[in-house]
Design goal:
With about 110 residues, the protein is mostly helical. The chain is about 75% helix and about 5% strand. The protein has five helices and two strands. Strands 1-2 form a two-stranded antiparallel ribbon. Strand 1 and strand 2 form a beta hairpin. It is elongated, with a radius of gyration of 20 Å. About 5% of the residues are buried. The mean pLDDT is about 85.
């Protein structure tokens, strides 16, 4: 996505097309250039994949944990949702989530 956005901006600059309002909104002309490089198609595919992952995580989290291994699977799903998908930006919370994994793994290994 970033590469396609950068490619579109490289094509747009010589044409006098740019961002509007401190980079928060894009002009219709920039949207047209993004369509030209395939940004919107890639975005739709990425969005559909993200929806599928979110649905899978929801199913994993709703499934009752019957063992420590089940808890580890749930943790990994939540970790992805929180950390890898960028929901948590606070570094302290990030460290806490990672520390919780260490506790779960240690607990699983002690049984």
């Amino acid at each position: 996505m970033r590469q396609l956005a950068a490619q579109a901006e490289e094509l747009a600059a010589p044409r006098g097309i740019g961002r509007v309002g401190a980079g928060r909104r894009h002009s219709a002309a920039l949207d047209a250039v993004r369509a030209e490089v395939g940004y919107h198609t890639a975005w739709a595919r990425w969005s559909a994949s993200a929806d599928e992952i979110a649905a899978l995580i929801d199913r994993i989290v709703r499934h009752p944990a019957r063992s420590i291994d089940d808890m580890l699977v749930k943790y990994e799903a939540l970790r992805w949702s929180l950390l890898d998908d960028g929901a948590v930006f606070d570094t302290a919370v990030r460290r806490q989530v990672i520390a919780f994994r260490r506790d779960l793994v240690a607990w699983a290994g002690s049984r």
